[in-house]
Amino acid sequence: MRIGVLTGGGDCPGLNAVIRAAVRKGISDYGHEFIGFRDGWRGPLEGDTMPLDVSTVRGILPRGGTILGSSRTNPMKIDGGVEHIKDNLANHGVDALIAIGGEDTLGVAKQLFDREVKVVGVPKTIDNDLNATDYTFGFDTAVNIAVEAIDRLHTTAESHHRALICEVMGRHAGWIALHAGMAAGANVVLIPEKPFDIERVCEYVESRFKTRYAPIIVVAEGAHPLEGQMSLQSGELDAFGHVRLGGVGEWLAREIEKRTGKEARTTVLGHIQRGGTPTAFDRVLATRFGLQAIDAVHQGDFGKMVALRGTDIVRVPLAEATAELKTVPESRYAEAEVFFG
């Protein structure tokens, strides 16, 4: 078989480990050939490819990002997009695709499978919000980066007697904020799933200032206050219809200073969270996903996504994986609330 591989959406630590594992096992165990499609769905849409063999993937395990490049191209929004992809796959002799990505990339994969394209999905998102898998690779790296940053913020906050806010990624799901906040001893964690009361946040800040320590607030970019008190959307949309977010950290700093009289500053981690070297956990998980993905292709088990359940790698229908987002349940947020203030 000749197998195409693509990586779509935001870059993520561990992508190269998936590519490496699939190619190494596919060639050595099954004798398959591989071709890489550049920049997500733009590659098969425009026929933009690169060689993908053992020499290509040598040494990429610890590298962040993706050697194939990525984009947020949505072929479903382009006239004749599906036909272009089918034609280019045929022109390059591609028998099947491995699509590595998050909700949007795998959503396209599911629609292509419905149109008779042979595809297997691999879950990728630092937000950990993909349904049907316990964890996605990239999440552990993002959390560890955030924890290191928050640990450093603690000492600055205490030295200058100011409140420090750390804004992390998380459009619809607050998994990064929750895990990083709990691990780094934040005094408040704010997530998209639960609108916050700014007055209550300020009470936590003032309570913390009564100790010899200073408050640290971890907020997901998609968090918002009660009753729609403010808008943090720019109005700009990407190819998948997502509104660009930003500004909740700065808004919080202004409100805290205004309401408490205490100095407050914001640090926005942004793309730092998803760049650089993946953790050992993410390298192993991504490698296992790649090995299982090529097994699924070899066995003709298309329309599936590999997923982590407990410590096992299983296969689930792409439809199940993309049906809904995995958000933080109330019970998990309640665990973090014990340490607020």
TrEMBL record:
The record marks D104 as: Important for catalytic activity and substrate specificity. It is found in: Cytoplasm. Pathway: Carbohydrate degradation; glycolysis; D-glyceraldehyde 3-phosphate and glycerone phosphate from D-glucose: step 3/4. It is an enzyme of class 2 (transferase). Non-allosteric. GO terms for cellular component: 6-phosphofructokinase complex. Diphosphate binds at G10. Residues 2-297 form the Phosphofructokinase domain. Keywords: Cytoplasm, Glycolysis, Kinase, Magnesium, Metal-binding, Transferase. Its main location: cytoplasm. It catalyses: beta-D-fructose 6-phosphate + diphosphate = beta-D-fructose 1,6-bisphosphate + phosphate + H(+). Mg(2+) binds at E103. One of its GO terms (molecular function) is 6-phosphofructokinase activity. Substrate binds at T125, I126, D127, R162, M169, G170, R171, E221, R265, H271, I272, Q273, R274. The keyword DNA-binding does not apply. Catalyzes the phosphorylation of D-fructose 6-phosphate, the first committing step of glycolysis. Uses inorganic phosphate (PPi) as phosphoryl donor instead of ATP like common ATP-dependent phosphofructokinases (ATP-PFKs), which renders the reaction reversible, and can thus function both in glycolysis and gluconeogenesis. Consistently, PPi-PFK can replace the enzymes of both the forward (ATP-PFK) and reverse (fructose-bisphosphatase (FBPase)) reactions. NCBIfam families: PFK_mixed, PRK03202.1. PANTHER family: ATP-DEPENDENT 6-PHOSPHOFRUCTOKINASE 3, PHOSPHOFRUCTOKINASE. This is Pyrophosphate--fructose 6-phosphate 1-phosphotransferase. It comes from Sinosporangium album.
